[in-house]
Amino acid sequence: MPPVQRPLMALGLRLLAAMVLSALVAVVKLTVESGVRFPEVLFWRQVPTVFLIGGWLAMRGQLDRLKTRRLPIHARRALIGMIGMFFTFGAPLLLPLTEATTLGFTTPIFAVILSVLLLREQVGPVRWLAVALGFAGVVIITQPGHSHIPPLGAAVGLGAGFMVALISIQVRDLGRTEESISIVFWFAALSAPVLALGLPFFASTHTPYQWGLLLLGGVLGCLGQILLTAALRYGQVASVIVMDYSSLVWATLLGWTFWDQLPTPSTWLGAPLIVAAGAVIAWREHLHAKTVSPATVGAGE
């Protein structure tokens, strides 16, 4: 039975998730800059989640909450999630936090394109105009050939937006039958062994400071994923995704605090276009959800 929709709770959870995940991105950036190799950071990002969730449920005698009949779907989500992590955490290593975060806001834009290519959905002129507006913002920020943003960084940042669009659809589908805590657990449990394959090539000894950052990243990642997944369980993707734009504030503050970086003039010009495009798309999706049956909405997400 699908979970009861609680729009206000979903918005609050997504807002809190945006804050936690912004902090996580900053911690990953600090960890890599301290000398820990990126693939190892991703491994330790997942491992604490397995023990935190598994241990907590074991103490409460509730391990049965992890039972699932959709393990292949969880595996597919884990595969897409691992690729998404490489892009999401890779972009801030190549770009300032604010620029990386802003390019990640292209998720709703890619969601529209995916709905046409994969779901054969009919998209009206308003949403196509929003897509064009969003990509205009991307061009202003990246200024191909004349920007401080390296092409690889821009590509990885846009890749993050694309992958999050795919992941959101996967999580929303799993959320119809699985608890949030189960989705997060299986993502970590299925991806950690794969990421462990790289440890012989990338692992090294660490200082207490580095271990502290790795542990903090794992805890923030676990908390952020639970909040993110719970938001998608209780609210429509198109409705809750608007809260993600609050992470631009956190990215700006963190970038200024730790790296003395503030957005460039081109980012100040392009970011509002991308945010406006995402907001328009979310608004249109919200209106569309009110005019079709729940079954139709489920089929099209």
Description:
With 301 residues, the protein is mainly alpha-helical. It has one domain (7-300). 77% of the residues lie in helices and 0% in strands. The protein has helices at 7-33, 38-59, 71-94, 97-104, 107-117, 125-142, 151-174, 180-196, 199-202, 208-234, 237-240, 247-259, 265-291, 294-300. Helix 1 runs antiparallel to helix 10, helix 3 runs antiparallel to helix 4 (97-104) and helix 3 packs across helix 8. The two termini are 17 Å apart.
Secondary-structure topology with pairs:
Blueprint: H1 7-33, H2 38-59, H3 71-94, H4 97-104, H5 107-117, H6 125-142, H7 151-174, H8 180-196, H9 199-202, H10 208-234, H11 237-240, H12 247-259, H13 265-291, H14 294-300
Features:
301 residues; globular; 77% helix; disordered C terminus; mainly alpha
